[in-house]
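ok, trying the design again with the full structure, not the truncated one.
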């Protein structure tokens, strides 16, 4: 029984320890570590990429007596140990597609004829010597660098550098659209000067360009108000007063009380011929030819305000002192106002709104395309290098998104000002409409 137990013990020990002895025999030998320390890029005479690969060699001795390893010691001259190395460069991390390789006994090697901007992996493998060995590998995308001489800093240089980092496929249309918006803004800015809508008191260019003296350009009641509008209103108001009979128009109160419809009609005609028509004609003449002594930069009828007033005045002259005269003047003025407002807005106000809306959408489109491209590069990297680490993937993703977001930043940077300008001028057109309505109401309410 004891013999059988001893036999089983020996057999079990053989099963457990013999494989371990074999593995120990394989591992219990001196080890060599090839450590890459340099991967520098140059450019050869043909303009292609050169990569200078350098490495160091470390050896770790095995102590058979103590069955242990010492520390890694640097090997100064690998040739003394008969070591040679195989330097390899590949386009994938598995080194299944090697584009260049060479054996050398030196501690460096130069790869020629590579392409800038392409992903490469490098490694140096121990090619000879009865040692266990380990090695590193390096990877990277090398780009051709051109020295740039910088002369100070400025907002334009910063902006140009910022724009170049984005996608020119979207940058160029965005900038062209923005410059078109600037042109639209210049056109509508000039047309909507208050001195181009209301006849100004002074003909000077500075007075017309700058937003000064709003009272002198648009007000009627103030003593410092618009001289042209005040002159038209002065004669027109007298004509409006003649539209209603009062006791002062008769010889006595009894005559006013006893006056029949026929007499009132005759008196109204007389008032129209003596007061109403001459004053209306005088107001129309001022609208057509201007106020004597007041020089205007352009003809009176080139101002929208004068055209609105002239339309109502001509309607007043046609309808005389009839009962519906005020209503017809209101209708004529309203129709002319709507026409003039459309001309003041033109296509430019809508164009500013369109540009302000399209710019951010174009930027968003560029961002979506850029993010898609970033994820595509990550997919390609993982397909080529299944063991790619986050240190490779994350920079690719972050860099792609960074470039993609530039188009959105530019789109918002251009779109927001265009929308603000659009709302400003739309509000200004509404303000002009309110001012016309105010002027016409002040005059026509006297009827």
């Amino acid at each position: 029984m004891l013999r059988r137990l001893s036999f089983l013990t020996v057999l079990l020990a053989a099963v457990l320890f013999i494989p371990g002895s074999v593995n120990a025999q394989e591992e219990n030998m001196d080890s060599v570590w090839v450590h890459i320390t340099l991967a520098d890029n140059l450019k050869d005479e043909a303009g292609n990429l050169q990569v200078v690969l350098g490495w160091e060699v470390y050896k770790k001795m095995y102590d058979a007596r103590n069955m242990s390893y010492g520390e890694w010691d640097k090997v100064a001259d690998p040739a003394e140990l008969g070591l040679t190395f195989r330097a390899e460069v590949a386009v994938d991390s598995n080194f299944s597609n090697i584009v260049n390789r060479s054996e050398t006994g030196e501690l460096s090697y130069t790869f020629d004829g590579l392409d800038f901007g392409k992903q490469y992996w490098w490694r140096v493998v121990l090619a000879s010597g009865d040692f266990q060995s380990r090695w590193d590998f390096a990877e990277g995308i090398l780009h051709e660098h051109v020295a740039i001489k910088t002369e100070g800093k400025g907002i334009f240089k910063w902006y140009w550098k910022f724009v170049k980092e984005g996608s020119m496929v979207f940058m160029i249309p965005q900038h062209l659209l923005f410059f078109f918006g600037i042109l639209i803004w210049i056109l509508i800015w000039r047309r909507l000067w208050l001195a181009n809508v209301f006849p100004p008191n002074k003909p000077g260019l500075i007075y017309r360009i700058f937003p000064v003296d709003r009272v002198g350009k648009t007000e009627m009641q103030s003593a410092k108000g618009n001289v042209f509008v005040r002159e038209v209103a002065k004669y027109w108001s007298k004509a409006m007063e003649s539209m209603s009979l009062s006791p002062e128009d008769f010889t006595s109160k009894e005559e006013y009380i006893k006056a029949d419809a026929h007499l009132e009609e005759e008196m109204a005609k007389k008032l129209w011929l003596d007061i109403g028509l001459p004053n209306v004609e005088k107001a129309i003449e001022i609208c057509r030819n201007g106020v004597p002594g007041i020089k205007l930069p352009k003809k009176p009828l080139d101002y929208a305000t004068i055209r609105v007033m002239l339309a109502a005045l001509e309607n007043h002259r046609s309808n005389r002192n009839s009962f519906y005269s005020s209503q017809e003047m209101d209708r004529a003025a309203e129709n002319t106002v709507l026409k003039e407002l459309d001309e003041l807005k033109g296509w430019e106000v809508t164009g500013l709104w369109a540009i302000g809306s399209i710019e951010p959408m174009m930027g968003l489109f560029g961002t979506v395309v850029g993010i898609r491209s970033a994820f595509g590069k990550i997919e390609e990297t993982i397909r080529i290098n299944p063991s790619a680490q986050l240190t490779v993937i994350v920079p690719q993703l972050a860099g792609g998104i960074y470039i993609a977001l530039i188009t959105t930043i530019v789109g918002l940077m251009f779109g927001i000002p265009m929308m603000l300008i659009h709302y400003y001028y739309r509000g200004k057109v509404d303000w002009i409409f309110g001012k016309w309505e105010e002027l016409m109401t002040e005059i026509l309410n006297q009827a």
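Keeping the full-length input from now on. Residues 421 and 427 are 10 Å apart (CA to CA).
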